[in-house]
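Now for my pick.
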Amino acid sequence: MPRLQPARLPPSVSETHPTVVNTRPLVLPLTPLPVARPWGGKRITEQFGWDPGDDRTYGEWWLASTYPGAITAVTNGGTDLARWLDGPGNILGYSAATFPVLLKFLDSEQILSVQVHPSDEVARRQGLPRGKTEAWYILQAAEGAGVYLGTREGVSARDLIERVRAGADDDEVRSLMQRVEVTPGDTLVVEAGTVHAVDAGLAMFEIQQNSDTTYRIHDWGRGRDVHLDQALESVVDHPAVRPIRPHRRRGQWTPLVRGLAFGLWHADAAEELEYAPQAALGLITVLAGRGEIVSGDESTDLQAGDTVLVVGPALLDGHDLQLLATELPT
């Protein structure tokens, strides 16, 4: 959680790496990695002025990733996040394999597949390192846009899968799911095991456990493989999800998500704002505005769309900065 005092290191890290307490403050800018998706759009590229260099539809931009085959580069660093964590950053207690989160922007011009992600327990039974709980922060929403989270009252996730197996069409699938209309600034938590689909017309920030395991249940006629048996093993009927809309005060960090495999905080800053991660490092993503982050004797410019890894306390300053801070588990 962002705090207004020096960072407190988790006991497991300080015990394993006694010298970590002397680690210098550091800001490491990361370069977003575009990922083409058949349902992708142009909201993110237009919002942040990014040019992917071709005409493909980019549904995702991976902001901080050590996932094999899709690793985020360190900006102007001649390395990437995985190699940095396995090298000089290893003193902080993480490696590329154990880094717990993956951050991305998501841009849906079309509806995404109905899908589910396994929990840690189910993932281990399936021979995977971890499951996937995620959370979304809505950046843009077309009029009436929404997400599908869970099933409607009286319908279980297993019922949904069996109806799909029996040949349910698009309209029936929609009728079996719970739709939640969203607006910019909403946060939604998608616990592992929740059947879900992102509807068309949205741009969002997504934080998730560091896993890309997705079991498709229904793909709206795109012809991609579905994974109904794995989905049946993974689904959980969680309580209905509602958008998180906390009261916010300008110039302060507001908690959006706590108590899961990660934390997420938001701040609007028109002047100086202090930040220090609870764990050995944190991540800050700039949603709007322009400014700088000062860490130790170094200053790093910030602009909308940037994501930086932060070690130790730092000071943010700028014009109309809108920020998200990702906290790692301690």
Remarks:
- The chain has a mean pLDDT of 91.
- Helices lie at 11-16, 43-48, 81-86, 120-125, 157-165, 170-176, 228-234.
